[in-house]
Amino acid sequence: MKSILSSILILITASAIAQTSAKSDTVKFCYIKYALPAGCSLTSGSQVKCDDYSMAWIYLSYPLLQSAPGQTIDNMSHQLKKFKKESITCFLLDAPAKGYRMSYKTDQGTIYQLMAYGVANEQPVILQLILNKEPRSNDDIPAFARQIIRLNN
Q1: In this predicted structure, what is the pLDDT of residue 130?
Q2: Burial of 97 (0-12, 13-18, 19+ CB in 10 A)
Q3: Helix or strand or coil: residue 93?
Q4: Mean pLDDT of 2-21
Q5: Which residues of 57-76 are buried (b: 16+ CB within 10 A; e: fewer)?
Q6: Of 105, 113, 66, whose CA–CA distance to 88 is shortest?
Q7: CB 125 within 8 A of CB 92
Q8: pLDDT of residue 64
Q9: What whole-number distance in Å separates Cα of residue 15 and Cα of residue 5?
Q10: Over the Cα atoms of the chain, what is R_g?
Q11: 96-126: pLDDT as tens digits
């Protein structure tokens, strides 16, 4: 089960930019509905693609929340070129969460990613935010995504 979840998260990461959009102007994250901003589309019920970033999440059981993030990071480190990670603390819907700031190389250049996991609005969740620039502060996170994930700085 752990490797299945890890594989799903890696597929979301790899395919977030390439999927076609579904017709919708809102998205739900942990039971809260958000309006999609201009330039963004819903590529699945739990994946938003915008011009310069994408965000995806998976809801988990409480036991999987304990093991899945570490397994996912291990898989990514073996499958991605020049993979770097840094542990961070952050917030998901203003609830404290754990996570990683990561970067890796692709044919298109360096990709930056935040992965956060925790319980937000009573829902265990892992969120991935993929960016074209390194997210060192909350100002580096797009406004829409910042409603959901914030760094602890």
Answers
A1: 97
A2: buried
A3: coil
A4: 44
A5: bbebeeebbeebbebbbebb
A6: 113
A7: yes
A8: 93
A9: 15
A10: 14
A11: 999 999 999 999 899 999 999 999 999 999 9
Three-class secondary structure assignment of 11-69: HHHHHCCCCCCECCCEEEECCEEEECCCCEEEEECCEEEECCEEEEEEECCHHHHHHHH
| Cα separation of the two ends of the chain | 34
Using a cut of 0.90, tell me whether the model's pTM lies above it: no
Domain boundaries, the chain: 2-151
In sign, the C-alpha dihedral spanning 77, 81, 85, 90 is: negative
Question: What distance in Å separates the CA atoms of residue 113 and residue 128, rounded to the nearest whole number?
Answer: 7
Topology of domain 2-151 in CATH is Protein Transport Mog1p; Chain A (3.40.1000)
CB 21 within 8 A of CB 43: yes
What would the pLDDT profile of 44-71 be if each residue is shown by its tens digit?
889 999 999 999 999 999 999 999 998 9
Which among 62, 37, 70, 63 has a CA at the least distance from the CA of 51?
Answer: 37
